[in-house]
Amino acid sequence: MSFSHIKLEITDTIAVITINRPKQLNALNHATIKELDEALQSLEANATVRGILLTGSGEKAFVAGADIKELATLSPVEAKELSRYGQQVFGRLSSGKQISIALINGFALGGGLELAMACHLRIAAEHARMGQPEVNLGLVPGYGGTQRLPRLVGEGRALELLLSGEMIDARRAYEIGLVNKVVAADQLHDAGTKMLSTILDKGPLAVAYCVEAVRQGLATTLNNGLEVETSLFGMAFSTRDKQEGTHAFMEKRKPVFQGR
Ligand code: CAA
Q1: What CATH number should be reported for the domain holding residue 246?
Q2: Per the residue annotation, which of 9, 59, 78, 134 is the catalytic one?
Q3: How far, in Å, from the CA of 213 to the mean position of ligand 1?
Q4: How many helices (H) does the chain have, and how many strands (E)?
């Protein structure tokens, strides 16, 4: 596949997607979101790729948001369509079968932070800065920010970021649980690969069930979520990976999981 605004590189089981508009600080115009959509669809159909690292081109920005020059021309109906499309594309990451980690290599603002939050996990470079500055433009986040941010950091902290439009640094983002880890910029890819490899070493079905339980649980009541957990706990007992994992423990050896 050939792309103009993103790069897609696959090595063994890991795909690296790089948003590649460095002169515009990797701002997401419609064409970029469309390419991201195509790349994610191609990965959904790829049985070999089990993890995705998502980052931005250059050293300054992960993604500085939706492309403001494009937003400026939209009608209300077009804006609603764009929001729905962006949410749908970002949803491919959060509900996809591959584990995704955002490598936040600089500014992650507006749609950029929303893209990072759609990934399962986030690692930030020390110089990264994050925020939802939409209110500075008289706008509301449209790619999931008002929903994913409070789920990650709690209502009070989310409202503080959403209403002030201010940026926070990587250390503060770590303190409030917005990112999972902060590393030196030159360590970002290694840290992402290491985190992903640790996960990919585990029982693939167990990993998928954990994601599913958390995802469904956050969308419902505690009691319903506990029911989901019970079902998935039972389902894990129908897998060969559960046999392998428990027997490997008792035989004091490393398990060899097959995702079955
Ligand atoms: N859209 C379009 N272009 C952008 C952009 C964006 N979101 N962010 C940066 N750029 C462009 C700038 O226009 C500039 O291009 P030109 O040289 O052609 O003028 C180039 O990238 C470099 O940017 P700056 O000169 O502004 O760089 P800086 O270092 O002075 O500032 C910054 C960096 C603080 C990130 C600043 O660029 C900025 O505030 N950007 C906008 C951030 C923002 O508001 N994002 C939210 C967008 S709305 C949204 O995302 C809605 C949604 O939820 C769907």
Answers
A1: 1.10.12
A2: 134
A3: 37
A4: 11, 10
Q: Are residues 50 and 150 in the same domain?
A: yes
Does residue 166 carry a catalytic annotation?
no
Instruction: Please count the other Cβ atoms lying within 10 Å of the Cβ belonging to residue 130.
Output: 26
Which ligand 1 atom sits closest to the C-alpha of 69?
Answer: 2
Q: Is 139 in the pocket of ligand 1 (CB under 6 A)?
A: yes
**Both 235 and 193 in a single domain?**
no
Shared domain for 243 and 183, answered yes or no, is no
Residues 170 and 222 in one domain: no
pLDDT band at residue 219, thresholds of 50, 70 and 90? very high
State the Cα–Cα distance between residues 63 and 133, nearest whole angstrom: 13
Residues 6+ positions from 215 with CB-CB distance below 8 Å: 94, 95
User: β-strand 168-169 against 129-131: which pairing, if any?
Assistant: antiparallel
Q: Is the distance from the beta carbon of residue 33 to the nearest atom of ligand 1 less than 6 Å?
A: no
Please state, rounded to an integer, the average pLDDT across all residues of the chain: 97
Residue in 25, 74, 132, 146 to alter for ligand 1 test, most ligand atoms within 8 A of Cβ: 25
pLDDT, tens digit, 9 for 90 and up, residues 4-40: 999 999 999 999 999 999 999 999 999 999 999 999 9
- Report the distance separating Cα 44 and Cα 93, nearest Å: 10
Residue 29, pLDDT score: 97
pLDDT higher than threshold 90 for residue 1: no
* Annotated catalytic residue 114: yes
Ligand 1 contact, 145 CB (< 6 A): yes
Q: Is position 1 within any domain?
A: no
- State how many domains the chain has: 2
pLDDT digits (tens, 9 = 90+) for 44-76: 999 999 999 999 999 999 999 999 999 999 999
